[in-house]
Automatic annotation (TrEMBL):
Highest rank taxon of the organism: Bacteria
GO CC annotations, alphabetized: plasma membrane
Organism: Corynebacterium striatum
Subcellular location: Membrane
Pfam family membership, one: FtsQ_DivIB_C
Protein name per the record: Cell division protein FtsQ
Any one GO BP annotation for this protein: cell division
Amino acid sequence: MSKKSITAIVAGILAVLVLAAAAVWLFPVFKVSSFEVQGNSHVDAAQVEESSGVAVGENLVRVDARAAASGVAQLPWVKSATVSRSFPSTLDIELIEHEAVAFREGNLLIDAEGKEFTTDTPPEGAVEITGSAEPGSQEIRDAVDVLAALPQNLRAQVKSLEVKNAYSMTFHLKDERTVFWGASEDNANKALAFETVLKMEGQNWNISNPELVTSK
């Protein structure tokens, strides 16, 4: 076979491939017929599908995955979203939701980064934050850090965390006792002190210095 013939064959194959790619792009050879939503605990899958802006029957190849993910991320519970194609006909949507660790008056939920993200029924384990701290302030972020220092079995005994300022945080327990934490510092040792005083007699505890715990 001559060099000219080989060149012609290669050119023909490339032309076919280009035409095939163009056909797939221009015509809905691969249509969206289903959605696979993962990571949603608080958001209904139908809401996720709708917020993606992608409809059943659309050309899967031409779906703007970034725009679809951006649309899903607008849902209050969604922290981030990733959208990808699964040929021949599925759009995969994976979510990371906010973790509601606390809430304020009016059921305003706060995530693990101290961000207030939506109003909803507080999930089990979320602790109410009271006091005069401003929304989104460093005091709120400090309060979330303090809550994170407590293991779940201790956090379950907390009714609320009162935040007056960065140096004055007080736990109010479900059994009416109080534990003054102070500032968000040395939190690991304070958590150990917290666990210890819950096993002792006493109504009002001060563990702001975990090496010198006092009661009154």
